[in-house]
Specification:
338 residues; five-stranded antiparallel beta sheet; 12 helices; 46% helix
Length: 338
């Protein structure tokens, strides 16, 4: 990593010799390394790492580099997105500034006494600002694909190399529910393709810098529905609430306790919605439907190594179904929409 930065003029040998430079791995789907020095400044280096076989010509890292170039050319987005410093197309490696004086939203969204409404407000305001800036960025060359979970009708309920038994059972359960499939079909049929969106919005991809938010990891950016980004943030709160429920709890007492625990989370969702809609004219019902779809995606991902659905998984599936088939009721109860 150090040699790569030196060879491309981003780090000099003298600095490497005289300063204390820390290089840490953050590799997940792709290879990732932070390179920082004493004052907290530095770079983040990301390189494509294929699951198998030769490198793709159009990897997610190559896609992210192209998107960041477009975003960095937009003056109003400088505070919302990372600055791309370098991209090596041959090595499929990009370099962005390491963000200093930032806090991870996933560590701040839940405070000592529950969901932090101020964090929800900051996220809603900054996401609205981001979407305003993205609205006139040229993106006609992007495919505009509907999120895969909304096209669940294209999956087979079979276990195999790419799908666990738990995931196959989930697909079968959802496909057996005509109302859910109809709601997903309606979302697919009305999927907009006029605007660039982040595409993978969640707490882990948000960093707080004061009262402002920086959105990172643009590998899945595409033309789509801005409310899909907002639904991604909503599902972060919903998933956290569900994870807090006892794994084996059941019965009326458990349901009542879960409902009581949900109150501060509902307040956070309502605050996120109010802060976002100040500068937008979104549909609360569509947001709730998209939240249901986004929860199905989270549930599917959680079942990657599972054989069966747990009680918590079933509860999460029921919640997703309710959001999909009764979005108007959810909007009234959760977002306090009249």
């Amino acid at each position: 990593t150090a040699i790569f930065l030196i060879n491309n003029g981003l780090l000099d040998i003298r600095s490497l010799m005289e300063m204390s430079i820390a290089i840490r791995s953050h590799s997940q789907r792709n290879r990732g390394f932070s390179v920082t020095w004493a004052n907290g400044q530095g770079y983040y280096v990301k390189q494509h790492r294929p699951d198998a076989g030769p490198w793709e010509k159009r990897s997610s890292v190559a896609h992210e580099a192209e998107v960041l170039q477009r975003l960095n050319e937009k003056p109003g987005l400088h505070d919302c997105v990372p600055t791309l410093r370098y991209y090596d197309a041959h090595r499929q490696a990009l370099v962005v500034d390491w963000l200093i004086a930032v806090r991870d939203v996933y560590k701040m969204a839940i405070g000592a006494v529950g969901p932090d409404l101020q964090v929800a407000s900051h996220l809603g305001q900054t996401l609205a600002q981001l979407h305003r800036g993205l609205s006139d960025i040229a993106c006609g060359d992007l495919p505009g694909q509907v999120p895969w979970v909304i096209r669940l009708d294209r999956l087979y309920p079979l276990a195999g190399e790419d799908q666990s038994w738990g995931q196959a059972r989930l697909v079968a359960l959802v496909q057996s529910q005509k109302e859910c499939m109809a709601a997903l079909g309606a979302l697919a049929d009305t999927w907009p393709r006029m605007q660039l969106i982040h595409g993978d919005m969640k707490w882990q991809n948000c960093l707080l810098q004061g009262e402002h938010c920086v959105f990172i990891d643009w590998e899945m950016a595409d033309r789509g529905d801005p409310l899909w980004d907002l639904a991604g943030l909503c599902q972060s709160w919903l998933k956290h609430w569900m994870d807090r429920q006892p794994r084996m709890a059941s019965g009326s007492d458990a349901v009542a306790q879960a409902a009581q625990d949900f109150i501060p989370y509902q307040q956070a969702l309502a605050q996120l919605w109010r802060s976002y809609r100040v500068a937008q004219e979104p549909s609360a019902e569509r947001l709730m439907s998209l939240c249901g779809a986004r929860l199905l995606q989270t549930l599917y991902e959680d079942l990657a190594d599972e054989t069966n659905l747990s009680t918590t998984h079933i509860m999460l599936l029921q919640l997703a179904r309710n959001l999909l088939v009764a979005p108007q009721q959810a909007a009234q109860q959760w977002l306090e929409v009249a």
